[in-house]
Amino acid sequence: MRNVVAVLIVMLAVPHPVYSAEEEFPESLERIAFGSCAEQFKSQPIWDAVVEKKPQLFLFLGDNIYADTEDMQLMQEKYNQLGEQPGYKKLLKTCPVLATWDDHDYGVNDGGAWYPKKVESQKIMLDFFGVPDDSIRRTRPGVYGSFAYGPKGRRVQIILLDTRYFKSRHTKDERSDDEKKKLNLVGWYVPNHDPDATILGAAQWEWLEEQLKEPADVRLICSSIQVIADEKGMESWGNFPLERKRLYDLIEQTKADGVVFLSGDVHFTETSKTDDGPYPFYDFTSSSLSVGIPKWAEAVNSFRVSKTSYAEPTFGYVEIKWGKSPAIDLQAYGEAGELIFENRVTVSALR
Ligand SMILES: [Fe+2]
After folding, report:
1. What is the pLDDT of residues 156-178, one digit of tens each?
2. What does residue 246 show for φ and ψ, rounded to 5 degrees?
3. Model's pTM, two decimal places?
4. Structural domain tally of the chain?
5. Between the N and C ends of the chain, which has fewer C-beta atoms within 10 Å?
6. Nearest residue to 55 via CA among 318, 312, 331
7. Separation of 209 CA from ligand 1 center, angstroms?
């Protein structure tokens, strides 16, 4: 969405967050919380800790529910279960939510373009998250979208990618479990080098190029799946190395400074860094809001720069410290609001 500036509205007693397009947003965006992988059938006490941090915006990065169905009524019921979580309701009274999706809320585990109910699923998702009737996100296939907050010099662009609607099939790892165990791999896939294979699809790539040309001081590019960490065989941009190279190249070509990637999906939390881009790229992964998987957290990631990989319920918190030398703190918090790790990135390093 080009030139859209959304206003953060403090929510009163309405069921879904509301944001509206305005020409100017007077405040700086400084506090953004995000998370992923929220099992709607479990209690989700973590929302209290999220609310406590007083985010101005919450980003839901996918697996927002576990739908895994082609039955749209069932999918709706599962969204309703999330909507009935007392902590989530509390969050909606304090800040707006922007969301993209991953496989389980899209509708099928590790799913992609072939999922037959994607049109219906998109509508249910956009409805649930209160996306306005006149939003461009309702006029095209896929749930991707872009938003910009704050005045010049403190402009934050939030880019929500859709890594499901157009995605090609993975290449399966045919090695035995024993072999994979020896290599500390936990996943199921190896890189797909087919030049026709895609994650974003042609229309979304074209759109992304336009977004990256928009002025911004900090850009949070939200991908449901991990962008940088790619060794453990789980879903990631590393499954499609040509697509990831295209992403890095596009950021370079459009001279899009200030990029930090946010991701989810893996049921543990870590920050990765690579020097493969025009400047250092960070990928802050926060997963899950409800259930961590320790075995996956222990898998290989030579890009990890957080002091640990954390496999308990968690959320991510991005604090942008504007001022003379702007910096971005990437902080992971646990269910009781305790700080698990943090990495500081200066904005001047992201160019
Ligand atoms: Fe996922």
Report:
1. 999 999 999 999 999 999 999 99
2. -60, -40
3. 0.93
4. 1
5. C
6. 318
7. 25
